[in-house]
Here is the input.
Amino acid sequence: MHLKNYKKVEQAMQDTAREMERVKAEIAAASDPRVSKYGGTGGGYHLLNDVESRADRRERLAARYHELDRNRKQMALYLRRVDRALSILSEQEREIVRKKYMDGGTWVAVAMTAGYSEGGCQRIAWRALERIAPVMDCDVVRPWWCAA
Here is the structure.
């Protein structure tokens, strides 16, 4: 389970959306007929004329756009899955899991803000992780120090 990646995935999704807009604008610019020059010489010796060059660029940009869109959809699925999993937890469990696994806090810091001992927070967190693991389609490996 990779809850620690949640914020990175959120940021990556925003970056991907910006990149998709940039690529979309480049596709539109490469498709603009006012920019193309017609009547150039054919592409002998593996050289492309301006029209062929723009068509090749549009194809590469379209492939890049589809790749970015596929990645964005996978990131959105991950974020929805984590949000859905966290929604089944109590507010207390959700805060402990967020502070430890998503924000990267230490057990001492989590315990201080939650008002429990470190061991108590660890037990609450591991029980919460066991409950959300099936929703996230993953397994939780209980560490040796966390008794049932």
In short: The mean pLDDT is 83. The chain has two domains: 1-87, 89-148.
